[in-house]
Amino acid sequence: MRNICVIGAGYVGLATSACFADLGNRVVTLDIDEEKIAKLREGVMPIYEPGLEEMVRRNMAAGRLRFTTSYKDALADAEFAFIAVGTPSGVDGEADLRHVRAAVESIADVMDHRIIIVNKSTVPVGTGDWVAEIVRKRRGEDADFAVVSNPEFLREGSAIHDFMNPDRVVLGSMDREAAHQVAQLYLSLRCPILITDLRTAEMIKYASNAFLATRISFINEIAAICEELGADVKEVALGMGYDKRIGHAFLDAGLGWGGSCFPKDVKALAHMAVLHGTHPQLLQAVMDINRNQRRRVVLRLRRLLGSLDEKVIGVLGLSFKPNTDDIREAPALEVIHLLQIEGAIVQAYDPAAMEAARQVLQNVRLCPDPYAAAEGADALILATEWNEFKHLDFRRIKALMRQPILIDGRNIYDPAEMRALGFQYYGIGRGNWMNHLQE
Ligand code: NAD
To answer: Are strands 65-68 and 26-30 parallel, antiparallel or unpaired?
Structure first.
């Protein structure tokens, strides 16, 4: 049993805390958000993440997990301080490190014994060295600490499962002994553990996210070509994916990638590249294609409906992907924004993100269920592929709509079935835009 402090009680921090506690460690989770910590102490989760609440409560009851807002308290016995605070985009696309800086300064101010500072936040290459510098500046050259980079690869919506079943754990440090000590925490997960230097570990995270975003933008570019040529991108991706060198993952054409990681991480990597004199032309294209995916849907609707002014558009799904309430950089929100610019009236429903949406969406009718979002609509856009949207009563939906136009932004429906029900069905890259344009 090791003593671990986790700084930041967000998606990553809470999953990390709950899982490390569940693996038998003593974990103290710290956040500067007092309201969040107060809720957590009562066993109430500030986010929606399947399986999290049960695991948190169980480990709190077993005395292995507790929450605090005090750095002194959190670090009193800590051998490891995992930093899991946010690193949002700054004005030029760079990663904004102010929360990381604040966390590191707070650690440095109270630490009175050797601590291994483990950075789980996604941070630009070179941040580990910068963290060490901050600590040395505040505590002197002989301060007893080590810095390890341990980028996190979990996905929202399956955070607990991903943490407990990682494809790999990446650890980077100039202090190999410290990296090996962190590795011990993961041994029972029986996955490959790659120990490398700090900068390489930091780059692995950015390169991985940028690669996944590239796959999605790639298939979306193929989808656009499919639309013109009458091929079905879903089958194209299936046929490609059987090739073991390619694989099936991240080849789903749709409204594109979003969320709290890909957009900011691809931007930050491109920013790093430019800052150091290289031209990230592929990354720029990957971002361009992604922006276009949202525009293309609105453009198609304009072609189908003429002016969108005063047209009622229903949107199913607001979170950036299923099984999360996270709406940061959600494709649905960008589509809604574009529709509103054109004067459309938007009504939307999401199974988990209504509360989050209420905070940021203006002039959108937030509906109690998917059918209300379809009622009186001139078109319905499926924006997030929640399971509950896969089995809707489409006869009822069609009867409720003013015009039976269905834009399947995630290609989850069977085109033939939807057309048989009387819908004008449009997927992404499913060879039917062209047919329509020829009609
Ligand atoms: P989040 O916004 O959900 O949570 C961050 C938390 O940190 C907040 O609760 C905030 O109050 C707290 N915080 C901010 N400053 C603090 C400070 N000085 N001291 C203590 N707490 C502080 O963030 P997240 O989505 O969990 O992401 C955290 C990091 O992990 C980011 O760098 C992100 O890129 C990376 N990451 C996220 C995911 C994901 O799926 N969300 C996956 C992999 C990596």
So the answer is: parallel
Rounded to whole angstroms, the Cα distance separating 73 from 428 reads 52
315 beta partners: 348, 381
Could you report the per-residue pLDDT of 206-249, keeping only the tens digit for each?
999 999 999 999 999 999 999 999 999 999 999 999 999 999 99
Which is the closest atom of ligand 1 to the Cα of 264?
34
**Residue found under tokens 């590191």:** 104
State whether the Cα torsion 124-357-381-371 is positive or negative.
positive
Ligand 1 centroid, distance to 238 Cα (angstroms): 35
Query: How many Å lie between the centroid of ligand 1 and the Cα of residue 120?
Result: 9
Strand order in the sheet with 379-382: 364-366, 345-349, 312-316, 379-382, 405-408, 424-426
**H helices of 147-280, where?**
159-164, 176-186, 198-229, 233-241, 262-275
Query: What's residue 390's pLDDT?
Result: 97
Whether 86 contacts 152, CB under 8 Å:
no
- Average pLDDT (110-120) is 97
CA–CA gap between residue 254 and residue 223 (Å, rounded): 8
Of all protein residues, whose CA lies closest to atom 29 belonging to ligand 1?
Answer: 121
Residues annotated as catalytic (active site), given as ranges: 261
Tokens linked to 395: 């006869």
pLDDT classification of 432: cutoffs 50, 70, 90: low
Pocket of ligand 1 (CB under 6 A): 7-13, 30-33, 36, 84-87, 99, 102-103, 120-122, 152, 154-156, 260-261
Q: How far apart are CA 94 and CA 103, in angstroms?
A: 19
pTM: 0.93
Beta bridge partners of 195: 171
Span 80-104, pLDDT tens digits: 999 999 999 999 899 999 999 999 9
The span from the CA of 430 to the CA of 379, in Å, is: 18
Q: How far is the CA of 310 from the centre of ligand 1 (A)?
A: 39
Structure tokens of 436?
């329509």
Tell me what pLDDT residue 153 has. Answer: 97
Mean pLDDT for the chain? 96
Ligand 1 pocket mutation pick from 5, 7, 11 by most atoms within 8 angstroms of CB: 11
Q: What does the block give as tokens for 120?
A: 């789980």
Q: What's the rounded Cα separation, in Å, for the pair 280 and 262?
A: 16
